[in-house]
Amino acid sequence: MFGIKKPIVAMCHFQALPGDPSFDESGGMEMVVENARQDLKILQDGGVDVVMFSNEFSLPYLTDVEPVTVASMARIIGELKPDIKIPFGVNVLWDPIASMDLAAATGAMFIREIMSGVYASDFGLWNTDCGKSSRHKVRIGRKDLKTIFNIVPEAAKYLADRDIVDIAKSTVFNCQPDVICVSGLTAGAETDTQILSKVKNAITDTAVFCNTGCRADNIADQLAIADGAVVGTTFKVDGIFANRPDINRVKDFMKVVRDFRAKL
């Protein structure tokens, strides 16, 4: 998918956008764009393989995103496009249709979303319609768009009492994802390696990524099981979700990854 073994997908978290409760009206969109530009530079200079843009600070998230969010994200990515040197994807939290529309507008290679299942979550009853989403992808001319499915959503629990292995197997059969993601409880929460291992062993023909909680001190263990990782919080100053990326933390993390890859 990305032309590299055990890729690291770095999160470029956009600050709160127009319409979000925490949007900074004094700085406006100009500040959001400039912060995103600086964050992208740090991630790329630090040596990450792939970048994923998301509206991470649009808390609390919607499952039916407002048009202003997609429009704002499209503006940001459009302004950053000349600076993007590595493959990129998008994630409009938590709305697969919106993510696909944003990908169509910006040329993103992939999306990560909650694409299947029904959940009890902090955001209420969380339903999905994978059949509708898959057809929408074709309808907007992005049949080539890669899909990363998160089957253990953050801040949510599968409504039916099903084992994670059964969920993984049926999701792969019914929905045909390109990658399955396994997460911890929230952004920055370590993914359980036992669950990660169970999923990987169950779906050997589909890539499995560790989605949360990867750090320099555990990434080798995670990549020994997973085919790649999505990384955000640990790249930030002091490893705190609300902070901005730290170039030294990115470089230190990626050195561990490169050393691990060299042994493969």
Question: Topology, pairings included?
Answer:
Elements: E1 8-13, H1 28-45, E2 50-54, H2 67-80, E3 88-91, H3 96-106, E4 110-113, E5 119-121, E6 124-126, H4 130-139, E7 146-150, E8 156-158, H5 164-175, E9 179-182, H6 193-202, E10 207-210, H7 219-223, E11 228-231, H8 247-262
Parallel strand pairs: 1-2, 1-11, 2-3, 3-4, 4-7, 7-9, 9-10, 10-11
Antiparallel strand pairs: 5-6, 5-8
Structure characterization notes:
It contains eight helices and eleven strands. With 264 residues, the chain is α/β, with parallel strands linked by helices. Helices cover 36% and strands 17% of the residues. The model has no long low-confidence stretch (mean pLDDT 95). It has a single domain (8-262), classed as TIM Barrel, CATH 3.20.20. Helix 7 (219-223) links the parallel strand 10 and strand 11 (228-231).
